[in-house]
Amino acid sequence: MTEMAYGTIPVRDGEPVLPKWWRTIDKWSLSAILLLFGVGILLGLAASPPLAEKNGLPAFYYVTKQAQFGALALVVMFATTMMSPQLVRRLGVVGFCFAFLALLLLPLAGTDFGKGAVRWYSFGFASVQPSEFLKPGFVIVSAWLMAASFDLNGPPGRLYSFVLTMVIVGFLAMQPDFGQAALVLFGWGVMYFVAGAPVSLLGALAGAVAILGTFAYEHSEHFARRIDGFLNPEVDPRTQIGYATNAIMEGGFFGVGVGGGEVKWSLPDAHTDFIIAVAAEEYGLILVLLIITLYATVVVRSLLRLVKERDPFIRLAGTGLACMFGVQAMINMGVAVRLLPAKGMTLPFVSYGGSSLIAGGIAVGMLLAFTRTRPQGRIEDLLGRRG
């Protein structure tokens, strides 16, 4: 725990793998992720029994499954954190190719589970959402392309990454999954900005997004219904947003007490998309603020470390992963308090869901691998030598 008090520690040559990993990993971010997983299990104990009872399953069936998926996610995360950035890049590219292929085949073999959006493959005993696994691989590939454009006589990587982004956004919008499409576009925009994109270009991109949003509103009943519900000043108390909003208000500062919440009996997605409403009702604002602090810790700590990174690929990929992780959490909580339209997006490491947990473990493992302390000159030293 020395790093928490005194800062980063230089890597010692010839150290065994585990001591070297422990010295170089960002322990604050790692601790925050483990706490988020613990909070997810705690909230699952409250939110999942009503759903299990409704489906005729043992009371803690979904909690047990979440713990199993979470254990696998943590194993994947820890394994990924021990990889070199080069190995992470190679595996990320391969993973992206498989996830992208799965995304392309969704219209042929996917299912919507009665929710109106074809986003999953169902295997009977489990289901897989390709878009969750696509995101970390997409960040790796986009960062690789953008970093290549910095090389002398390098390819137009930023243009290639833009074309790739538009293709992915198009396929996600066809499901339709506008939430994930917006998250992918945001992640690319952040990396493009860090890579040196002019503000005017980003402004033009924002205008294009507004035009596409208007087109989607006029031609997609699914999209229009969610926007209309968000803009309606009166909230129907019998809708998911109505139940969630009321639960958050009922929770107050300290909550109604463990097990005393009612929203979990009314919301079909209380254990996934609206898990923050369960936290607010039973544990109050205190737990919600703790959850927000944990997410902020991971994002801010990661960005502070990446600012000192001189490798453009690591800097871009790490920034994309950190910002997408934080914004996904913001979107989930923003929907619950009606600051954003409903998007069907999980709260990373807290919501129930095998695809979300395992893909989150991969993404955070990549981020922690990129933010490990390495024996290198800082970027300001490199700029100083060039000057």
TL;DR?
This protein is mainly alpha-helical and 387 residues long.
Any descriptors?
single chain; mainly alpha; 16 helices; 70% helix; disordered N terminus
Description of the molecule:
The chain has 387 residues and is an all-alpha fold. The protein has one domain (26-371). 70% of the residues lie in helices and 1% in strands. The chain contains 16 helices and two strands. It has a two-stranded antiparallel sheet with strand order 1-2. The chain is globular and about 60 Å long. Residues 1-11 have low confidence and may be disordered.
Q: What is the residue-mean pLDDT, rounded to a whole number?
A: 85
The end-to-end distance, rounded to whole angstroms, is 37 Å
- What is the spatial order of strands in the main beta sheet? 1-2
Total number of beta strands: 2
Strand content: under 5%
Number of domains: 1
Element pattern in H and E: HHHHHEEHHHHHHHHHHH
Structural class comes to mainly alpha
How does the major sheet shape up?
2 strands, antiparallel
Helix content: over 70%
Shape category: globular
Question: How would you summarize the topology of this molecule?
Answer:
Elements: H1 2-6, H2 17-24, H3 27-54, H4 61-81, H5 85-109, E1 121-122, E2 127-128, H6 130-148, H7 157-174, H8 178-194, H9 199-219, H10 221-231, H11 240-251, H12 263-266, H13 275-307, H14 312-336, H15 354-370, H16 379-386
Antiparallel strand pairs: 1-2
Helix pairs in contact: 3-4, 3-13, 4-15, 5-6, 6-7, 6-8, 6-14, 6-15, 7-8, 8-14, 9-10, 11-13, 13-14, 14-15
